[in-house]
C-alpha cells in the first residue's frame, strides 16, 4: 500500500513539471486592438476606440458663435499674433469660451524649443487676453478694432505643457469694465483634453487713447 502511494506521488510531481502554472486573473496578458474592443479590466468596460466619424461627432454640439472672419472684424491682431480661432460660447459683456488650435506651423516653435516644441506660457496668457478683448470691444465705451494694452496680470499658474496638436479651450470672465477710462479686469483659465493647462486670478488691460 505504501509503495502505491509513493508511486502516485512521484507521477503527480513529474506531470506538474510539464504543465503551465495557473496565473491569477490580473497577471494574465490580454491582447487589444487599436480599432477594436478592449478586454475588461478590474470589472469595468475599457473604452472602445472609435473611427474618424464618431470622434468628429464628439464636437457636433459645439456651435461656432464667432468664426475667424468674425474675430478679425473685432480684434486688431493679425497673423502670426491672432491667437483665437473661434468663439463657441458668448455672453455679451460677461464671458466667452474660445478655441485656439495649436500647430507646429506657428513661428515661435522654431526656437521654443527646436527639439521639444512647447507653446510659450506668455502666449497662452495673451490668447486669453485676446478672448477677453473680444468681449470688451463689443461693450459700451469701446468699438471693434480698437487697440488695447496689457496693464497687468496676477496669479498665473501653468499646470501642463501645451504642444502642437493640442486644442486649447479658453474661458474668460469680465469682472470689471470702466467705460470712461477703457479699463477692464478679467479672470481666465484654459484646458487641454479636459485638464487645466493654465489659470490666472486677474488680468488687466486698457484701451489705447
Task: Please name the defining characteristics of this protein.
7 strands, disordered N terminus, single chain, globular, 209 residues, alpha+beta
What is this entry, summarized?
The chain has 209 residues and is α+β, with helices and mostly antiparallel strands.
Could you explain the architecture of this structure?
Strands 1, 2, 3, 4, 5, 6 and 7 form a 7-stranded antiparallel β-sheet that branches. The chain contains 4 helices and 7 strands, in the order H-H-H-E-E-H-E-E-E-E-E. The chain starts with a helix and ends with a strand. 20% of the residues lie in helices and 27% in strands. Mean pLDDT is 84; it is low at 1-40. The chain is of the alpha+beta class and 209 residues long. The radius of gyration is 29 Å and the shape is globular.
Provide the fold topology:
Layout lengths: L1 H15 L35 H6 L10 H5 L13 E6 L3 E7 L19 H16 L11 E7 L2 E2 L8 E12 L4 E10 L2 E13 L2
Antiparallel strand pairs: 1-2, 2-5, 3-7, 4-7, 5-6, 6-7
